[in-house]
Amino acid sequence: MVENRPLLTVFSHVVLLAGVAAVAFPLYVTFVASSLPLEQIMSVPMPLVPGDQLLVNYNQVLTAGGTTGSKAPVSTMLFNSTVMALAIAIGKIAISIIASFAIVYFRFPLRNFFFWMIFVTLMLPVEVRIIPTFKVVSDLGMLNTYAGLTVPLIASATATFLFRQFFLTVPDELAEAARVDGAGPLRFFKDVLLPLSRTSIAALFVIQFIYGWNQYLWPLLITSEESMYTAVIGISRMLVGGDAANEWHLIMATAILALLPPALVVVLMQKWFVKGLVETEK
Amino acid sequence: MDKRVVFRSAWLPYALLAPQIAITIVFFFWPAAQAVWFAFQLQDAFGLHTQFVGLQNFAALFADEHYLGSFRTTAVFSIAVAFSGIAISLLLASMADRVLRGALAYKTLLIWPYAVAPAVAGVLWGFMFAPSIGIVTYVLKGFGIDWNWIIQGDQAMLLVVMASVWKQISYNFLFFLAGLQSIPRSLIEAAAIDGASPLRRFWTVVFPLLSPTTFFLLVVNIVYAFFDTFGVIDATTQGGPAQATQILVYKVYYDGVKAADLGSSSAQSVILMFIVITLTVIQFRYVERKVQY
């Protein structure tokens, strides 16, 4: 702070508190609704203090699911989301780190061509090639499978850039020393580069885990069986239309369960999250 | 930007690149090429015959009032999302940059919505504003406002904008905070000594120095509004009422998946591809160079 202006400081706190409250309000309403019986949500206005149905509602969605719309238990959906998020995060990191290793530490024909091929994928999000990508996955027999949910999403230009950028900052002397000592490229990668990349990997993991967990359009297209729904898809499938027809207490309990894991990752791994966010955008 | 020390191997670099390139070809290039191919084809209702029709699909699109309407909707939506998101985040970030007490707590409490899926954000906001049972709807009724986004197009648009901005504030906030913290204190002190008030310092010193961050966020937010808000819309308005919230991406999905109109949907995909390419080029050409005064 440059100067002492108590009034301005008070004003800053007021603005920030209002911001925090506005950001938190939807979450609070959701939490309260997830602890109420349906009748109380339907009685306008719904109460704004938590009710006593918390355990009942969560128990029902986790073990049995909703009774209208999607009937799959949410525990299955959470498992699917976890598989999807982990496979996408780990898969992206794995194939990108070896691709950038090849691009940075080797000279070979078509090197730049491959680099540009990876770059161009930035310009082809799922949204602009919905139907043909669906057809490819369907022809390969990957509808309603974990492979279909994850493999098409693990190519990553941003992760490749991030590792390339990082490898370029690694001192040349390390590779020289490794070569003098007779270490081959794979040995150098495993014993020198990989340990050095730990922080980049952690940061990227946090971002990609959230990305994978929150995928919507892709699982919406390729999962038609309830047993393959992810949590995010499950919620939208539980909405059967019309305010009065929805089982809001169960939908809200599912919403809390679906947003809790990635929110915890953000809050608990804040340092890696911020680093990952800022670096993947450079 | 090349390494002095390189390893030599005739096959290893190709093997290392193979997984990434294979996925890129099978799931990115091949489908994108097909989308372009289909865009010039007309398919009969049963999908049995296809015929090359040149630019006919594109001509039909630009003659279609719904498609042009979707362009306008997308423009209104993305401008509203980008500008309100950036303004609110900039206000919060400049306040957070000022306070010493509780700075970390504020930061933590403001960034968690990043973790919420767009579709879930849509459900949360749709519930609060639900026409018959929503808690906010009830409050609005007290003020004499008749809120029903199921039938009122403007209100539906406002709802999806609010849900989308809510989710994106955390992202903008973090980038603005980082930008503010990298401004040298000496510049602000010098302006303060010259007698500039905090507000004047903000507009004449801080805001111009933040312009690279702001421009970068503008592009990112427009891309976000174009593509990542699909979940928000699908979980709330589904493009309705009467196409009032049918942004381009939603229309591609609707025409391709729900209405199974392959030719038109592919032509729309190709147009979207052009938009993404333009935005990506802008991002890489101008953001790298940094907008500075």
Kindly summarize this structure in a few lines.
Chain A has helices at residues 6-33, 38-42, 54-63, 74-105, 111-120, 130-139, 146-150, 157-169, 172-180, 185-196, 198-213, 217-222, 231-238, 248-268, 270-280. Chain A is mostly helical.
What does this protein look like?
- The complex is a heterodimer of chains A (282) and B (293).
- Chain A is mainly α.
- Helices cover 70% and strands 0% of the residues of chain A.
- The longest helix of chain A is centred in the N-terminal third of the chain and has 32 residues, at 74-105.
- In chain A, 48% of the residues are buried.
- By secondary structure, chain B is mostly helical.
- Helices cover 72% and strands 2% of the residues of chain B.
- Chain B contains 13 helices and two strands.
- Chain B has helices at residues 12-39, 56-63, 65-98, 103-111, 118-128, 135-142, 153-181, 185-193, 198-209, 211-228, 230-235, 248-258, 262-289; strands at 41-43, 50-52.
- In chain B, strands 1-2 form a two-stranded antiparallel sheet.
- The two termini of chain B are 28 Å apart.
- The model of chain B has no long low-confidence stretch (mean pLDDT 87).
- The chains are: A mainly alpha (282), B mainly alpha (293).
- Chains A and B meet through helix 1, helix 4, helix 5, helix 6 and helix 8 of A and helix 1, helix 3, helix 4, helix 5 and helix 6 of B.
